[in-house]
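Holo prediction. Input below; ligand is adenosine-5'-triphosphate.
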Amino acid sequence: MSSPAEIVVDARALTKRYDDDRIAVDGIDFVVRRGECLGFLGPNGAGKSTVMRMLYGFTPRTSGELTVFGMDVARNPRLIKARLGVVPQDNNLDPDNTVWQNLLIYARYFRLPRKVAIERAQVALDLFALGDRRDSEISELSGGMKRRLVMARALMGDPELVLLDEPTTGLDPQARRVVWRTLREMRRQGRTLVLTTHYLDEAERLCDRLILVDHGRVILEGRPAELIAEHAGGVVFEADLTDVAADGAPAQLPAVTTAAMASTGLDHVYESGTLTVYGAGQDPAGVEAAFARIPLPAGTTHVVRRGTLEDVFLRITGHALAEDE
Ligand SMILES: Nc1ncnc2c1ncn2[C@@H]1O[C@H](COP(=O)(O)OP(=O)(O)OP(=O)(O)O)[C@@H](O)[C@H]1O
Ligand SMILES: [Mg+2]
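Structure of the complex:
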């Protein structure tokens, strides 16, 4: 049997209360194992960035325990930071320097020999498709380019653990793919990743394990496929009732539909003209047969799709992950 992977981050009852007495992180426990990609998922204000900032020693914790590489973050910040790569939510590039200088100046922090710094800067620029922007001023970069430069910069110290707070927010689909490819490459190089995201497809694609947070608390934790299987199901039926009447979708499901739904024992949500039926924990063929027996108004159309993390989030918290998705 292989030995359990080394624990790189260990957080116990980790709590952050800001000066205004707002509790941002409310006693959470988690570990990060070497080589894994752990994702924090949650709506605006859930406490994701606060957790990240405590991890990289920018925000002091109020109480609880937090070790990184087996060292207390409050006692050994320098030793820890030397082994970290950090991508904060806001791009904190130096506007008075070029792309290239931003990388080399950052490298000084790690006391790298100049030759090594130059080599690493070149590799990092190429990795993030910024090779032709080497001499650009920061103000000349697009938002997506700045984001990629912050990620390139995070690799200058050859980090064991990379912390990425919303690495792809604001990037176009192509740039997101560049980032995904790069994050996978970092994994192959043996780096451990912790990221936050609002994008559920990203979380599902990249993360081995997810922690769903809401109001500073962990509400669910697990592997993406397991969370989906357990809380949404392999098949989800989505019926569209928007065209069943001239004046649009009914505000509520017809009583006959509700009664039939109840007899199937399947969980469902009806919102804004869409009826979503979940078959979590049930055999897909049985779910399909049960759905077929539910009387729906004439004009209803439906699609069958696989369960997603969005379904998981909606069912567990009762609200969608983000308003803008
Ligand atoms: N410096 C601060 N001072 C006071 N309150 C803060 C500070 N930073 C964050 N908060 C509060 O802590 C809570 C958690 O914020 P945080 O930035 O950690 O959330 P988040 O999950 O990263 O949100 P988003 O998805 O919008 O980035 C919020 O209520 C926020 O208003
Ligand atoms: Mg944040």
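The first strand starts at residue 7 and ends at 17. That is the main takeaway for now.
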